[in-house]
Design goal:
By secondary structure, this protein is of the alpha+beta class. It has a domain of 129 residues: minor pseudopilin epsh domain (minor pseudopilin epsh fold, 3-Layer(bab) Sandwich). The protein is 29% helix and 23% strand. The protein contains two helices and ten strands; from the N terminus they run ααββββββββββ. The strands form three sheets. Strands 4-2-1-7 form a four-stranded antiparallel beta sheet. It has a four-stranded antiparallel beta sheet with strand order 5-8-9-10, with helices on one face. Strand 1 and strand 2 form a beta hairpin. The protein starts with a helix and ends with a strand.
Length: 192
């Protein structure tokens, strides 16, 4: 009696299994480098989108709460923090209960551009006195670190960096730069 008639369910032979495993091994070894670049690129893109999301959240919170907000970057500690700005009246000791601290992906590093927005030049007549009494003093929480400052009117502070450069371990990069209208940031593949 032939073997196929004795066992109607039949199975794979050892040679067939070894052949399938060899084909799978070859396919994985050929596609692994491509998949590695794909996943590292995803980490960079994901980090840029997460940063842009936090920028928009900070801007929205500044408008909704009527308080200046700060988004500061600590490149050495691989983190960035969004929190309300302190007033100089309290000596800068206010604690923000809605503070958001995020760590960068381990494969991504951030570089903050030293360029700042151009300071607007006030236009006034020679007869008008300038008063600084209504302008509150700013006490940055992290004065030594680059900080994006969101004002209660939705604008971005004049000393905020123009661009943030995100670089992954393979050297690929994305830029989060100030938009042309200077009201928000956007993701770009090249600086300005």
């Amino acid at each position: 009696m032939p073997r196929s008639e004795r066992n109607p369910k039949g199975g794979f032979t050892l040679i067939e299994l070894i052949l399938v495993m060899a084909i799978l091994t070859i396919a994985v070894s050929l596609s692994a480098p491509t998949l590695g670049h794909f996943f590292s690129g995803r980490a960079l893109d994901s980090e840029a989108r997460r940063l842009l999301s936090l920028i928009r959240a900070g801007q929205g919170r500044a408008v909704s709460e009527g308080l200046p907000m700060e988004l500061w970057f600590d490149a050495q500690q691989q983190r960035y923090v969004l929190e309300a700005e302190t007033s100089s009246k309290n000596g800068g000791s206010d604690i923000d209960g809605k503070r958001i601290e995020l760590s960068l992906d381990r494969d991504v590093k951030i570089e903050v551009s030293n360029q700042h927005l151009a300071k607007p030049t006030p236009v006034r007549s020679s007869m008008t006195a300038v008063s600084v009494a209504s302008v509150p003093q700013v006490t940055l929480r992290q004065p030594a670190l680059p900080t994006i400052r969101f004002l209660p009117d939705g604008s971005i502070g004049e000393n905020s960096p123009q661009s943030l450069h995100l670089v992954d371990r393979d050297g690929s990069s994305l830029w989060v730069t100030l938009a042309r209208n200077r009201m928000n940031y956007e993701i770009r593949s090249q600086p300005n």
